[in-house]
Amino acid sequence: MLRRKPTRLELKLDDIEEFESIRKDLETRKKQKEDVEVVGGNDGEGAIGLSSDPKSREQMINDRIGYKPQPKPNNRSSQFGSFEF
């Protein structure tokens, strides 16, 4: 195995700004989630309302992992290719 010198990483101003913006977003989401839990804990509706919508949960997961599903085309040429009979 060849040894090489360590790669030098430079911290740029853009990286710091991006980190700060992401951290603020996470903090606001955490506060909103805590607010929903507090409201849901009082009347029992908040937690049930969040878990009863699987589409939004699925959408949140897809957004988090960067998955963007494409609708499947519904015509025969896309299913079987362009075969000539």
UniProtKB/TrEMBL annotation:
It is found in: Nucleus. Its main location: nucleus. Residues 34-85 are annotated as: Disordered. Signal peptide: none annotated. Coiled coil: none annotated. Belongs to the CDC26 family. This is Anaphase-promoting complex subunit CDC26. It comes from Daubentonia madagascariensis (Aye-aye).
